[in-house]
Amino acid sequence: MDIDLLSQLNAERAARRAAVLVTDLADGSNTLVKEGKATPGTLGPMVERAFRTGKSAAVEADGRQYFINAHLPPPRLVVIGAVHISQALAPMAKIAGFDLSVIDPRTAFATSERFEGVTLHAQWPEEVLQAHPLDPFTALAAVTHDPKIDDDALKAALDAGCFYVGALGSRKTHAKRVARLSDIGVTDEMIARIASPIGLDIGASSPQEIAVAILAEIISALRKRQVVGS
Q: Domain boundary at 55, 71, 87, which?
């Protein structure tokens, strides 16, 4: 591969931006497609599929053979709240391939004993997210039920374009949340992206079942995300 092309690909990967390397199998030439850049012809939908699924594949388009190599950042899940739901969600998320971290300034909840082997931040979300910024390949789930902890994190997730933003709470609780977010300048369009009540509607009741519903909704959002430029 051309050194300049490799440098461009590595730069995209380092910045946690998606890119697809298209190789013409007839002549070995390579083209780097960054998310947001349109690909002409019948190859376009195949490249878009690679951006959406993260799967590499050999394809045929316009009478030529190509290999599409997808380079998507590893998906991250940031959970606001070291609660029982988070304890159940942590091992499930790891199995599903998510890099997970839990943030909660309440040191009685955010303990290594309760979250063994989990990246844990016993700090306020705004402090942690300043040092570890969110991005479009990150999901955020706010589950503390405490506006002082959840609200700033939700705004940060919406501002960063996270592929999933969810918040625990009833419709009445969410209505109050909407009013608070509006007061700090979050637009109605952005607020509409918040999944609340959080998780797929599977009739979940226990923390473990709620965790399953949340993770399923996150996976669905990741695989159905709007590819930039499509």
A: 71
Q: Which residues of 61-89 are buried (b: 16+ CB within 10 A; e: fewer)?
A: beeeebebbbbbbebbbbbbbbbbbbbbb
The domain in which residue 18 lies consists of 3-71
| pLDDT (tens digit per residue) in 29-74 | 999 999 888 888 889 999 999 998 889 999 999 899 999 999 999 9
Domain co-membership, 115 together with 44: no
So what's the pLDDT on residue 228?
A: 60
Residue 13 lies in a domain: yes
CB 220 within 8 A of CB 168: no
Query: Each residue of 65-117: pLDDT tens digit?
Result: 999 999 999 999 999 999 999 999 999 999 999 999 999 999 999 999 999 99
- 84 in the same domain as 51: no
Dmax (CA) for the chain in angstroms is 63
Q: Do residues 44 and 112 both lie within one domain? A: no
Minimum mean pLDDT among 80-84, 181-185, 224-228: which range? 224-228
Quick one: tokens of 36? 């947001």
pLDDT one-digit tens code per residue, 118-132: 999 999 999 999 999
CB under 8 A, 24+ apart: contacts of 50-59:
50/20, 51/18, 51/20, 51/227, 51/230, 52/223, 52/224, 52/225, 52/227, 53/223, 58/25
* Contact indicator for 43, 22 with CB cutoff of 8 Å: yes
